[in-house]
Amino acid sequence: MTTAATDPQPAPPRPEAIRIEGLQKSFGTLNVLKGITLTAREGDVVAVIGGSGSGKSTMLRCINFLETPSSGRITIGGEPVAMRADGSPADRRQIERLRQSLGMVFQQFNLWSHKTILENLIEVPVHVLRVPKAQAVARAERLLARVGLAEKAGTYPAFLSGGQQQRAAIARALCMEPRAMLFDEPTSALDPELVGEVLAVIRDLAAEGRTMILVTHEMKFAREVASHVVYLHNGRVEEEGPPEAVFGAPRSDRLKQFLKSVG
Ligand SMILES: Nc1ncnc2c1ncn2[C@@H]1O[C@H](COP(=O)(O)OP(=O)(O)OP(=O)(O)O)[C@@H](O)[C@H]1O
């Protein structure tokens, strides 16, 4: 029997990495995000699922201001983003700084085609963050080895497969030592046989406790790696919860329908 004196204390909640409150985004008259609220604590893997056009990518792009929100609040690492009433950033330098703390990985890799893989990885650390070149190169080489591309440092992106390019893009994001990673459908542009190698890298990052928000169509993978799943429908969070609940015991008819349609 344990006594009150020896009862373990509940662990304090992990610090918040990303918090979004009441996020709205319209493109002209098209109201895409209708008030999204979501929190990712440090170490969380939040998978965002939903049908085409539900607003998943727009939400992710608003988090690092690749899109300007129409309204709402975004807090990164406890620091509220200064926004004007129309949602535009009030402090460009703050946006740049916060953006650098979020490693974004896109569907289309977005590597610089005229730079080698190593140059892609060290460009921002050396020329923007002023990391000494030798240090940036050492970090880049370590991360390339980690994603299985040690031999490709001197190669140009065009000579790599899509899976290799995406792994390089992940290594490039990690070079910034980000607080959290944002993945926007990282395997959607890949041939099916190349999907697994990219998912393996993401799985590895999740296992080491990396904070991430992952927009994905890979339901099996989302169920496997996510600590929390958010289902978006028509610009709103329709349902959310742990993967066992969202995938195993969906409550809303829309989610049930969606899972049936993808599954
Ligand atoms: N820059 C833009 N200008 C106008 N409309 C946009 C823009 N970006 C996105 N949209 C529209 O916003 C809606 C949501 O798009 P979004 O890409 O966020 O959806 P999604 O859930 O990620 O879809 P998918 O799974 O197909 O990628 C769509 O109707 C899209 O056409």
Automatic annotation (TrEMBL):
Residues 18-259 form the ABC transporter domain. It holds the Pfam family ABC_tran. Gene3D superfamilies: P-loop containing nucleotide triphosphate hydrolases (3.40.50.300). It is a peripheral membrane protein. This is Amino acid ABC transporter ATP-binding protein, PAAT family. Keywords: ATP-binding, Cell membrane, Membrane, Nucleotide-binding, Transport. It comes from Gemmobacter aquatilis. GO terms for molecular function: ABC-type amino acid transporter activity; ATP binding; ATP hydrolysis activity. The keyword Signal does not apply. GO terms for cellular component: plasma membrane. It is found in: Cell membrane.
